[in-house]
Structures are given as structure tokens and as C-alpha cells.
Design a protein that fits this description.
Its main location: nucleus. GO terms for molecular function: histone acetyltransferase activity; RNA polymerase II general transcription initiation factor activity; TBP-class protein binding. The protein has strands spanning 2-4, 7-8, 27-28. It has no helices and three strands. It is 0% helix and 7% strand. By secondary structure, the protein is largely without helices or strands.
Length: 103
């Protein structure tokens, strides 16, 4: 569903046909997430689900034996993520190429 100035917009018409001005704020609401049935499986028993075993080989980073769910949350004034720096935590996993590697 799309809303503009409190009105529900019709899906079949373009934004220009609905008199939506350029650079206007349009609210998009998606209430259902549909999962594909074949993507409900977990990686095989021989693969670890957590680090460090989860990333032993480059091929373990593949999405061919599972599925990926990407989602973006963006607002000018954050309502849900109010703590400063909440998105700044970055975990990097690096596999040493030799025992002397100090990276």
C-alpha cells in the first residue's frame, strides 16, 4: 500500500497520474513477507552455523544452500533505532593465510 498526504494511492496508476509532486514523501507499507518453501532449509550438518567454523572456506559464504533476506530501514528521525551508534558495530572475520600473518 502507498499513502500520499493521508490518501491511499491506486496501484494501477503512475505517481504522475495521481498528482504526486516530485520530491514528495510517499509512505510505503508492506505487511506480509512471503517465504519461498524451498528456501526454508538450513546449511548441511557438516557446516557450522557460527564463527569461527562458519567461515573456514570462501565457499561457505555462498548463498547457494540457503537464502538471503535483505532489508533496509531508513528514516530522517529514527523512531526504532534511538541509540547513537547502534549501526556502527561491524564484525569482520579474517582467515589467516599463514601463522605469521598479523592482520
Amino acid at each position: 500500500m502507498m499513502f500520499y498526504i493521508g490518501k491511499d494511492l491506486e496501484d494501477e496508476k503512475s505517481l504522475a497520474a495521481l498528482n504526486v509532486q516530485p520530491n514528495s514523501l510517499v509512505h510505503l507499507i508492506r505487511t506480509k513477507v512471503h517465504m519461498w518453501p524451498w528456501a526454508q532449509r538450513l546449511p548441511g550438518d557438516n557446516k557450522s552455523l557460527r564463527p569461527p567454523g562458519a567461515f573456514k572456506k570462501k565457499s561457505y559464504l555462498s548463498t547457494k544452500d540457503g537464502h538471503v533476506f535483505l532489508m533496509e530501514y531508513y528514516e530522517e528521525r529514527l523512531l526504532m533505532l534511538s541509540n547513537a551508534g547502534i549501526g556502527a558495530n561491524l564484525c569482520t572475520y579474517y582467515h589467516k593465510s599463514s601463522p605469521e600473518d598479523q592482520r
